[in-house]
Structures are given as C-alpha cells and as structure tokens.
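Box 3.1. Reading complex inputs
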Amino acid sequence: MTLYADLHVTRDAFRLDLELTVEPGEVVALLGPNGAGKSTAIRAIAGLLPITEGRIRLGDDLWDAPPRVFRSADRRPIGVVFQDYLLFDHLSALENVAFGLRARGTHKRTARAEAARWLETVGLSEYARTRPRSLSGGQAQRVALVRALATSPDLLLLDEPLAALDASTTLHVRAELGQHLKRYNGRTLLVTHDPLDAMVLADRLVIVEDGQIVQEGAPTEIARRPRTEYVAQLVGLNLYRGTADSNIVALDGGGTVTIASPSQGAVCVAFPPSAVSLYPERPTGTPRNTWPMQVAGVEQHAHTVRVRLTPHNAPAPATLLADITTAAVADLHLAPGQLLHATLKATEIQTYPA
Amino acid sequence: MFRRTVAVALAAVAASTLVSCGDDTPAASGTTSLSGTVNVFAAASLTGTFTRLGKDFEAAHPGVKVVFNFAGSSALAQQINQGAPADVFASAAPKNMDQVTGKGTATTFAKNKLEIAVPKGNPGKVTGLKDFADPNRKIALCAEQVPCGAAAKKVFEAAHLTPQPDSLEQDVKAALTKVTLGEVDAALVYKTDVLAAKDKIEGIDFPEATQAINDYPIATLTDAKNPATAKAFVDYVLSPEAKTVLTKAGFETP
Amino acid sequence: MRGRRERVQGRLPLVLLLPALLGLAFLLVPLAGLLAQAPWATLPSRLFSADVGQALRLSLLCASAATVICLLLGVPLAWLLARAELPGRGLIRALVTVPLVLPPVVGGVALLLVLGRRGLIGERLDLWFGFSLPFTTAAVIVAEAFVAMPFLVISVEGALRAADPRYEEAAATLGAGRWLTFRRVTLPSIAPGIVAGAVLCWARALGEFGATITFAGNLPGRTTTMPLAVYLALETDPDVAVVLSVVLLAVSVVVLACLRERWISGLR
C-alpha cells in the first residue's frame, strides 16, 4: 500500500501544491527552505489541517478528500515526531510512550510492558520513570521517536527531528535515527531544511520551494545534478543554466564555459567550488575557462575558505564560488573588492539537460 | 479599647471642626438668618418622609441645605460613633439613639407599628399572626438583632406564638423584597413600609401590634457643626406640618 | 567582588519595592486592626458557642460545594471561551464576568427572579415537584456559585490560552480523541490555573454575603453562613462580629495555605 498525497492548500496568500508518494519501507525527505510549505504538508498528511483540494490516501483508504471525506488525526494510522518533540511533561518517559497504545485501546498493563520494550530498543530503560524535562535533548528525541513508533503506525512523519539538538549530539543521533528508520517497515516522510539530514536518512528527496516541487530524486542524483539555485546551494555546487553548442555553453547570465563532453541545447552546468582556482595575474597558456573576477565576499569554512566572486568588466559566470586553502588566502592577500583571475577545470564540470 | 478609639476619633473630629470652621459660626437666632448645611443621619425607613421634609425645610429657609444619610439605625449609630460628621440623628430605635447620645436626651417624633405584609392577592391565605407559626407557610421575619426583628419578637411573645420563619432578614427592606417577589407568604414589616409598597403588597392589621410600638427619637448632636440650623430642623420635624407628612406615610405621632 | 555585584543586581529596584510594601501594608493593616480589636480574653468562650460552629461548618460546606459546581461547569465554559470558534465570543466573555461587577444583592434578586418560587424556572419546579429553592442550604450554594464562578472561568481561560495547543495535536496523532486529549493532556497542563481559580473561587464563596442573604435568606443552621452571622452581629455587638471575622479569617488562611503547600509539594 502506497501513501499517495495530492495536496493543495490555500491559506491567505500562500499556496501549496504538492504530489507525493511514499512506498512501504521507503524514507522520503521533504527538503526546502523555511516557509516553503513543508510544515503545512506534514500537518495536512497528519490530519491536523484539512486540505483545500486534492486527496490523501493510503492504498484505497481515503484520509482526506474534500469536501466529503476528512479523517481526523486520531483516526489515521500515523506516528509523528515533532520538531520540539512535544513530550507530555506531566507523564514519565514510559507513560509518554504508552500514551498512544492506551489511546488506541490497549490495556494499561500491556501498554506499559510494550512501552518498556520500546524504551529498551533505544537504550533508555533506566529513564522509564524520568519526566521529559529531565532528559537530555538526544534522550528526549529518542523517547519521541519510540512514542511515535509504539503504535506501529503505517506512516511515520518526522518534522525536523534533529533541529532541536546541539551540533555535538546531532551526528550521533542522526546515525541512530537512520538505523531505526531502516528497521521500520512502514512509510516514512521526513521534513527537514538540513540537506545533510535528508541525504543521510532518505531514500528519495523531494525539494520544495514556495509551495511547489522543484526537484525530486535519489540523494546522489540531486547532489550531483541540482536544478535550482537553492538545491545547488544546499549541495554546495556552482550552478548555471545555458545553451550548449558542442563544447561551448553560452550561460544565460552572460559568459561562456568550455565543457569536456560535447552537448546540445538547454543545459545545466554544475561544478564544485573546489574546481575553481584563483590567481593574482592571468595564468599563461592554460585553461580556456579563465575570467577576470572581483572578490565580493570571503567566508571561512571548516578547512577551506569560500570566496564569492562577481564578474569584472568581462562576460563571466555570475556569482562564482571558489574554495581555496587558508594558505592560498594568505598568498593572495585576499580582500573584498580585489581583482583576480579565476580558472575552472573543464573535466570537473557536470553538464545535464535543463 | 474600642471605646477609647472612638473617643480619640471624636476628639480629632471636634478639633478639626474647631480649626477649620471656627469663623463659620452661623447666627445664633432668628429663622431668617439660618444658613449652611445640616447633615441629617436618618433611619432607612424615613427615606420617603424625610426627603420630603428636607425639601420643605429648605424652601422655608433659603440658603440652608439639608444633606441626608439614610441607612440602618445601628449602622448610622456606629458611623456617628466613629466620627462621621452628623448634625442630626433620627433613629428607628431608642437603643441606637442611646448608643450615640446617652439616655434621655432625644425626643420621640414618630411611632411605627408592625403589620403583616402579604403578596398582592394573598396567595398564602394568611389571615393573622397565628399563620406565622405554620411550618408549611413561607415566612420571613427580621433578624432579632435589627429593630423590626426585636419588635416582632415582642409581638410573638405577647401572642404566645412560636413563629416558624424560613428566613431572618437583615433589614426590613430585605423582608419586604421577599414579599414583593412572592418568595414568602407573609412577613412582619412596618406599617409605613406596607403603605410605601402598596401597589405590590397588601397589609393585614393584627391586634398584638400595639405590644411593640416602635419609637423614633430625634436629636441634635453635641458635636454638630451647625447647631442652630440643626436645632431648627429638629423643631421642624416636631412641628404640626411635619406631623401631617408623617401621618400620611403611615406613622403615628405622639 | 563578583558575589557582591550579583547580590546587588538580584535585589528589587527601589521603585518597585516601595509601592509593593505600601500595597502589602494596605492589605494587611485592616486585618491587623481587626486582630487588635478582637476581645482575646473572651474569644475562646465565644468561639466554641454552638452558633459559631454551626455557621462555620455551613460556610465551609457551602463554599466547597459551590467550588465543585464551579469546577464542573466553569472549566468546560472556560474551554469553550478559549478554544471554540464562537461568534460574539467577546460579548460572551464580558457576560461571564457580569457577576463580578454586579452588586451581589442584585445578583441575589436576579436569582430569585429565575429560581424563586415565582421565578421563570422556579415556578415550574414548585408546580411540578413541589420543590422551592430559596431559603434552603442548596440556595446558599447556588448563590455562592453564581458569584464565584467568574473567578474560576477567568483563571482557567487564561491558563488554557497560555497552554500550547500543539500538545493536544501531538495527543491526536497518537490516537487520542478529543475527550481523552482533554482529560489526559489539556487538564494536566492547566492544572495550576485550575487550582488557582478554584482557590479564588472558594475564597470568594466563603466571603459571599449579598447574593446569599437575598436569595437564600438567613436561618441559623440552614442558611446562616459566617458572613451573614458577622453582619447581624455587627448590628448589636461589634465585638462578636470581630470574633466571627477573626475565625473566618483564620480558617480561610489555614485552608488556603495548606492547599497551596500540598499542591506545590505534589507537583514536585
């Protein structure tokens, strides 16, 4: 049984149009910037918000089909992990996990035994009687996860499940969450604004901007071939659209790029910032892809420095990102406004139909 | 302790009166030269008649203003003892007057007696005082602590009856309200109250009422700021013109 | 050095402290006056007179019963005001607070007009069941509940508005229906507001005078609560009135303090 959601929600000036499917065992990540409509989508699927048009169904089971059918959240076989978990503070961790079972009619003793087993799977047996506010962020996240899983839902919804954690615990919790999701054989829909979460946890990414899907596919595919500025930024690539004629692509924003493998027609051109090198003087007798650029900004990343460049008095790719070493920064005496020459290796360029 | 506080408070009021109003002393004699404000503290049951008398008095003496404070007699007595600025006190019971002036300095200007009040149409078929001893009837009396309740007690003792009240009201108006709304079949209230509300209730006279005639004393207070005008007002209340007004309202006059 | 500076910062600004202390004095000095006037020597003998015990018992009983009624009716009403999409909700909220501004005596008359022997509903009750509410202990409870309910409703509504409705959504996604969610999630989360409202409500009911004496009348053992006894005592013997007031004061302070203590310790 596939979850099929054709969502259309209109709210004031905002409009969400989204078509999604999630197969059993599949983890789909809804990735997009804040305000893209991800939360609206998850709320609609959870039954916390009726859709304006369209339908949501699991197999043949209709959940929402305005104007006739609307099944409220408590009657959908779902589990939700909320961004800030929303654990009930007046209940212990165990009672939180048992809550869903109790609500769905399981006898108290059975529900508690079941909840204890779930806590064990996330290594929190000794915290069974602890109140949520005394748990660490990572522990609370795990309680929230097993609370959602305890009712064996057909659909698991995760709303920014790692956003409330501090950086040091995120890595560990993310890996753990990945393992739990692998073991879970229902459908998982994950909403996140963090590309790393999406890449690591999801089988398939759906990228949303302004309430519309802009790209959809496997993480590797999206990481290599972004289609919008936003996705390119997420995966850290330079992306341009242009028209290819054999080995030359005329960019829409001005300038040309020479590519290694010939192509024709409308294409996307993508390359990592590390493929760009910077020189104080125009390098002699070498690559075709050389442009005079001006430094617009410098930003320290983990082990590299990312330089943002804009064209200077010549057609060139607009807003070019280059990653160089700290040593190179010192050699170049980099400062905003400085004039440089940027070169790009043709072999590192990805070209694909737009 | 209580008494001493009262004394101190009174002294303070007297002192402030002397300081602030020393040069404001009204002319000693002659009705035409009366002036200023006279503060009259009067029992609630006098509201109608005294308002009327005050207007007449003001008309007869231009420049004089009569300001009333109507409330339960015991409340008024307490207010005066706590230093409230009163020139004249008209009480519904000699006891409350005594609390303020000491015994025997006041003059009785009116008498009131009890009457049975029943809702219009007399739904409880009340005929006399004996019906107050019937537990099946809804009966309201005044609490013994207030004058109308004390009077009722005397009446029942005289009639050798044990009343079966459903409520002991805190004042005569509250008892009257219960009758007006039809919540009780009968209540014992003053004749003047029955007369004042005669479009909503009916009154039934009973012979034992003479056993508890309620005297209304009036007196000028020793701390009066405006003794001349105060005395003139008291004299007016005791005059034949005032008697007519009082009699019309249901009071008997001495 | 640092310790001293922290202490200085932790202190209240003088601008607040002065009016705060004045406010405290304003509330406490009249009570102190009452205590100073109390005839302590004769207090025990007066205290254990049957009348005082009877009035006190009746007061506690009626105030508690009124609080229970307010809880049963007021919490759902507060929920309605806080959560339901009602047309004219502002007006309804204003109407709910009417008993706060209405002189209690008028409230009592209003109750008589509805529930009295000739009242809109009371007439039917009398006709069909031969039951008449005024002048009964039940009438005291009704009068007190009428006057005290707004305190509960306002307090609980405030708590409901402050409560995060997303917890209710979380409960729904776990399969809890509305009623279960209300009982197991909403109610516990607003418990402090309910307790605060119930305490206010109880205190108001305990001190209720005007509506009670108007609607329920005054009959020792049946409808004479402490405030009524105090009022009538004031007519004849102010000393007795002071004694009664002190008793009422002491009992309410003890009950409120215990309630608060127990509730706070229960939360930990």
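In summary: The domain at 2-20+31-111+215-248 of chain B is CATH 3.40.190.10 (D-Maltodextrin-Binding Protein; domain 2).
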